[in-house]
From TrEMBL:
SUPFAM superfamilies: Bet v1-like (SSF55961)
Protein name in the entry: SRPBCC family protein
Amino acid sequence: MTIFENKTLINKSVSEVYQFLEDLNNHQVLMPENIYNWSSSKDEARFTIQNMAKLVLKVESRVLNQKITIVPAEEAPIALNLEWSFVEVNQQTQAILTISAELNMMMKMLASGPLQKLTDFQIEALKNKLG
């Protein structure tokens, strides 16, 4: 398993950050420009990554104000798992995004950069959105 992770401090309560992220409808604002054909519900999101693949992600589990796990709902080009976790730090929320992917050596060379960029982009977009 290859791990991509980033975190940020947000000046909101854990419950506010959790409530925003538990609804996949809100994740569209966290996506980079190369994501299009977005459609979503609270539990599922469908989109296309430009020049790459179509993905369908679903919420696999929610632990109230602690963790949200998102996995592919249909066959994906790579096996991956996205996990948002939350920790209260001095009346702020530390939001941590961890993407775990099963990558062979070739896929690691191709996908590591884009997956780390996605992790970094989503953390920055969350910070910009919720402050």
